[in-house]
Amino acid sequence: xxxxxxxxxxxxxxxxxxxxxxxxxxxxxxxxxxxxxxxxxxxxxxxxxxxxxxxxxxxxxxxxxxxxxxxxxxxxxxxxxxxxxxxxxxxxxxxxxxxxxxxxxxxxxxxxxxxxxxxxxxxxxxxxxxxxxxxxxxxxxxxxxxxxxxxxxxxxxxxxxxxxxxxxxxxxxxxxxxxxxxxxxxxxxxxxxxxxxxxxxxxxxxxxxxxxxxxxxxxxxxxxxxxxxx
Amino acid sequence: xxxxxxxxxxxxxxxxxxxxxxxxxxxxxxxxxxxxxxxxxxxxxxxxxxxxxxxxxxxxxxxxxxxxxxxxxxxxxxxxxxxxxxxxxxxxxxxxxxxxxxxxxxxxxxxxxxxxxxxxxxxxxxxxxxxxxxxxxxxxxxxxxxxxxxxxxxxxxxxxxxxxxxxxxxxxxxxxxxxxxxxxxxxxxxxxxxxxxxxxxxxxxxxxxxxxxxxxxxxxxxxxxxxxxxxxxxxxxxxxxxxxxxxxxxxxxxxxxxxxxxxxxxxxxxxxxxxxxxxxxxxxxxxxxxxxxxxxxxxxxxxxxxxxxxxxxxxxxxxxxxxxxxxxxxxxxxxxxxxxxxxxxxxxxxxxxxxxxxxxxxx
Lengths: 230, 363
Description:
The complex is a heterodimer. Chain A is an all-alpha fold. Chain A is built from 10 helices and no strands. Chain A has helices spanning 6-39, 45-57, 60-71, 76-83, 92-116, 120-128, 133-162, 165-171, 181-190, 195-228. In chain A, α9 (181-190) runs antiparallel to α10 (195-228). The radius of gyration of chain A is 20 Å and the shape is globular. Chain B is of the alpha+beta class. Chain B folds into 2 domains: 2-220, 3-Layer(aba) Sandwich (Rossmann fold); 234-359, CATH 2.40.50.100. Chain B is built from 8 helices and 21 strands. In chain B, the strands form 4 sheets. In chain B, strands 7-8-9-3-10-11 form a 6-stranded mixed sheet, with helices on both faces. Chain B has a 5-stranded antiparallel sheet with strand order 2-1-4-5-6, with helices on one face. The chains are: A mainly alpha, B alpha+beta. Chains A and B meet through α6, α7 and α10 of A and β7 and α2 of B.
């Protein structure tokens, strides 16, 4: 891509990498959380529900600052991770963590809806046929919630691609390290003559977002057709 | 052999049952709300009873005193649900083989081809359940349960969601299960004609309690037992096909007495169980003359049972077996009926519905 400068290209690649890992890591935890919220009764359920939704309601800058307080090298978790040789603050891994947390409520909401749509009677039937709980989940629940899983992943991915406030607060805006696509757009707009580069990145943003949406539509329709049978 | 004893409480409902289900079909019979499904779910392990012991052959599935409770996936019980509950995301073939995959490798394997053939579902194997009819779905559900190599089959009103035509499509498969598969079947129903056709043993549930249990022929002929209304009361007679006549009637032999029915499919010599609804029987003190009815059985009044209404249930002992007649108390008085009186039961041959006739099982 001749028309993209190295710095712009870096930002695009970094954003894709950050979003990919953010989605991949958040997905299993989102499924577990959605399952707990949809199916289980436990004390503190409303508290968990609130916590999950917090990144959606809080200003992203606040979330970013909280991440810095907790996962920064001086923070309780960050300090512990540092002793293990893992540093998140001001690294791309930190950007992935911020993106994952910001996308998490969207993923949980989509997956929870699809879990609530699964008839537990089908899972009972699978159990009477000899399937243990993990097998019931793998062979019945999981295939049936696949459309929701896809929708949730794409939503999470799109949110991660667009995440700005929490990212810039937690990991700053270091080119090649933590400068994601939205951060780069912001940076280009701060320098005179940067509008052209910013516009190119905006166009790429739109293409990726639309592409992801279309892909999710196609996949979800395929999965839904399988589940509906016919 | 399955043995069950359960105590369970829900708000406004207390279950307290004990019964045994020998090989053959044991029908749990009772009105809706009598606790039938609760019992079956406890046997399957889908419901944890407050108190109870459930044992299948030599395995204890649940014993609350000993703290034993096997989860449903380790009970080896095939469950045919009322609504089929097929997996919509799997093909018919995958649905059928679902349970086999989890069955212990050493267990005797039911043959897929044989079961597909028996249920007549070969042409459906590649399809998904979404587009299938209720009857087809239920046949697949039966196949799926059988192929999981179960030690027993549970069926919770498997015909309730089907119309009459589909019912008569499925019933013969349960008869074949009863006659060909040597495992106990616990079958929940509130339909007297299903019970009459399928049951080897009947367990009557009323308001969460077992009120009667025993061989089907005995229980179904007892007017006090039948909890689902007088219309379902009827007597059962064991007969044998004697001959098919050229006028379209078949002659049945019931302990030396002849019964005439519209042509049956069974060959002469085959055993046939016949059910005669109590409200299709007329009583006469003298041998009726000049009557169009073909089936007239002589007998003695054994018991007259009266309830709150104007009706009376007369139990008649005939050489062919017990006959029940539903008449009014006024008629009973007018005829001067009392225990031991001689009288004749008049049954119109058309009153014996084909759905109430079935091959008898030797149990």
